[in-house]
Amino acid sequence: MNTDKILYLHIGMPKTGTSSLQLFLMQNQESLAENNCSYPMMPGRYPMVSPNRNAHFLVGKIMNAEGNIDIEKTKEIEVQSFELLGQAFCQTDRVILSDEAIWNTYKKDHPECLERIGAFCRQHGIVLKLIVYLRRQDQYLESYWKQQIRRKGVTWKWNWMVKHTPRYIVLDYYHHLQVLAGFAGRENIIVQPYYEENFDLCSDFLRVLGITDTDAFEPLESKVNLSLNNNYAEIKRILNGLLSEEPSQWNREQRWLEKLVVDCSRTEKKQYESSMFSVEERQKFMERFDEINQRIAREYMGQETLFYARPEKELPKWKKDNALQYEDTILFFGKALLDLKREQEQQRKRLQELEGKKNILRRIVNKCRMLL
Fold it and tell me: DSSP letters along 2-59, please?
């Protein structure tokens, strides 16, 4: 096997800054090339999936106009993507693919996504390295819950989320890594911790690739996938219960509500900083994973601790009657009403313009009739 050729497949996990990292890699193609790396863009376009996720062809499905899986088109995009991947290796020795969905998709009973990329690497003598960033289980669960409220329109209360965490949300990182190691080999899995505060993911990822001179790389101006604060998550969670049952109407309403809460989160001047866990609840929750996380640190990273203690503010547990909930609620509905009013004014202006054009056309027609 040609060890000079390496495919770095970044597989997540979700809620570890993946959207920002993917945009950063896409925007720094020239700097990557100067370091013998490439981040090829693939042809497939998938609903609700950024094109920056260039490994999504391994797990994504192309949909037809009726909303069903287009098997033929999906296969066509997969073939084209592998062709582009081969071309990328003709230009650089190291190629990067990224999609956070692979972390939750790959299971013992659903191995196709990695088997295909593994077969490609074996055929071309390429070393396959899996990169995964792990986020502390308590922080991941909070962030994932708010993401489901924001993007999926769920109405789950926080207490329900903790007690009845859906099975597809992987919290036993060690077991999942063992499954992945059975495919790629433990020596080919690069495990990195992700921190919520005071952490530069993009610089850390470059360091994993062996790139130390980062001055030539253009940093991102802002975070891509903005997280909601707990007040706006609660507003959105309640309103999700009012969404239409008709799919197309649901999509329109969901996108509108999501845009509103994200806009409010961006423009608010004050924020109620809080946690869904109390200090005691957080400690008790994390005790379940102490042994798991220690085994990961020892076996995959050669150290004793997976998540080193970092200075973090002790946040109060979120309460629905907090000091800023009233103000945030007024801001949300005020923005919603003003947005609707502005949209109505624009529509009224367009109607007036159309009416004006209609009157001009009517006068022209009348003059033509007089000349006949």
Answer: -TT-EEEEE---TTSSHHHHHHHHHHTHHHHHHTTEE-PPPS---TT--TT-TTGGGT
- Return d(Cα 138, Cα 297) in angstroms, integer: 18
Cβ atoms 304, 184 nearer than 8 A = no
Q: Which residues contact 81 (CB under 8 A, 6 or more apart)?
A: 42, 43, 44, 57
Q: Kindly give the interhelix angle for 230-240 and 247-267, rounded to the nearest 10 degrees.
A: 160
What single-letter DSSP state applies at residue 227? P
- Residues 342-372: pLDDT tens digits? 988 888 888 888 887 777 777 777 777 776 6
Dihedral, CA of residue 23, residue 29, residue 31 and residue 34, to nearest 10: 150
Summarised one tens digit per residue, pLDDT across range 40-67 is 999 988 888 999 999 999 999 988 888 7
The CA-CA-CA angle for residues 320, 154, 201, to 5°, reads 85
- Residues 347-367 as b/e (b if ≥16 CB within 10 A, e otherwise) read eeeeeeeeeeeeeeeeeeeee
Q: Is 28 exposed, middle or buried (0-12, 13-18, 19+ CB in 10 A)?
A: buried
176: which 2 tokens?
């999942």
**CA separation for the pair 292, 163 (Å, rounded):** 20
